[in-house]
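Example 341, ligand NAP.
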Amino acid sequence: MLGTAERALGVHRVVEPAGVLPQAASRLDADPEIGPDEVRIAVERLNLDAASFRQLSEAHGGDGAAVRAAVLGIVESRGKMQNPVTGSGGMLIGVVDAVGPASPLGLAVGDRVATLVSLTLTPLRITDGLARWDGRSEQVPTEGTAILFARSIAAVLPGDLPDAVALAVLDVCGAPAATTRVVERTGARTVVVLGAAGKSGCLSLAAARAAGARELTGLVRNEAEAEALRAAGLADRVVVADATDPLAVASAVGTPADVTVVCVDVTGAEHGAILATADGGTVVFFSMATSFPAAALGAEGMAADVTMLVGNGYTPGHAELALELYRSTSGVRALIDPRVH
Ligand code: NAP
């Protein structure tokens, strides 16, 4: 019999293998019937994690119907949306439609919420066959049910922003929070963001500025993104390079920075990020496509004395911070809105 603490983590929903937490499980029980400490959400829309969507899209040659079938297959077989290749998930929005009497989350039936825990550990059942999704974007309109545990977190959706925007911003809200924390704690002056014109990238630049950093460099992969980032006015310097080409990154960045934030959605950015960072500096690997061995052995191989942080998706206050940066920074809106609409 599981205790309250184990149930709060969702261990009772793990089907296999036994003894792991839901995030590491290969399969969860997504039964919509809730326990006393659970909350059920009537799902309206999923936001697939960027690294996961890119991998699926590339694996199926951009064929939307095949991507849709793949996502459906994953959710049906795993009871959750966790891409088996990238290991990553995303998050969802929906309406609370049942609350167990012992749930501590403070949610009420009818609340429109975004889950701030990953889809990789959220029991999920899809009931419309993803019929309204063309398989060509990260945002997936759908119907079904999702379950929140006692330790899951969720944010009531802000009334002033379109759902798609709120979902996109909340999905990456860990990035600006991590950037703020590192810049404030280290007193960093110079910051480089790889993938700076993307959603987490532009929010991280805005967060770095607000936290007191003074020289911000945004690295993007082509001239079109460079133009958009310059127009957004979030960076003091915009450079163009392939983040997966370490020497090109080092040459484009020039003098290494106090802090580098990795916000690309592709594999292979570890070495460039390390070269872009000064000795004694910090790299925040927010990208889900980061490899621990590539980062750890790469830094060792370059005798680089850098602190490397895994971008934790959770920091207290992260959702409010990201939404506020979106509302208050026109350059962030200019970069995020076209990606969402
Ligand atoms: P996004 O909006 O798609 O931004 C990614 C950016 O990286 C895009 O501008 C993309 O350019 C750029 N890029 C891709 N390949 C590049 C390359 N080789 N060189 C330079 N730039 C390149 O993605 P996002 O939603 O911000 O997510 C970014 C990463 O954060 C993903 O890996 C995602 O999985 C991860 N994530 C982490 C957490 C966490 O808790 N740690 C939570 C959510 C998401 P194009 O648009 O031209 O491709």
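Summary: The pocket of NAP is lined by residues 49-51, 88, 171-172, 174, 195, 197-201, 220-221, 225, 242-244, 263-266, 286-289, 311, 313, 339 (CB under 6 Å).
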